[in-house]
User: Fold this.
Amino acid sequence: MAIQRTFSIIKPDATRRNLTGAINAKFEAAGLRIVAQKRIKLTREQAGTFYAVHKERPFYDELCDFMASAPIVVQVLEGEDAIARNREVMGATNPAEAEEGTIRKEFALSIGENSVHGSDGEDTAREEIAYFFSGLELVG
Ligand code: ATP
Ligand code: MG
Assistant:
């Protein structure tokens, strides 16, 4: 499998509880290198744009309010098969269904406040990285 890049967010429930370092340790232990990272705070509108794919879902408003409620850490992770590898390390969307040892099993509070986001495919990874980072910020 080739070296890939994926986009990751450490969500507000995790930044509030000072879990950035603990979550990054999980990525690094899984062989994912953090090649770009910054702490930002989304506006409600930016959160809505990012999750626009879910705008017909009943949880959309709650999700956007949550994502704009506190700072987030946006990141680019690089490694062998990074998109799938990151999804494995994250665990299932609902922490009650997540495997032992995954980020969501250990840290997520609920299906909504689930500590991390990760791109779900090559196209979304490329688009999400380009939305948050310039080429100059991707130092490898
Ligand atoms: P993400 O896109 O954040 O990496 P995911 O791909 O595991 O998560 P999606 O189905 O894309 O899950 O849902 C996006 C986000 O919307 C979830 O991570 C979660 O924060 C929120 N969400 C999903 N389902 C629900 C739900 N039933 N109730 C509340 N929030 C939800
Ligand atoms: Mg998703």
Observations:
- Residues 25 and 32 are 10 Å apart (CA to CA).
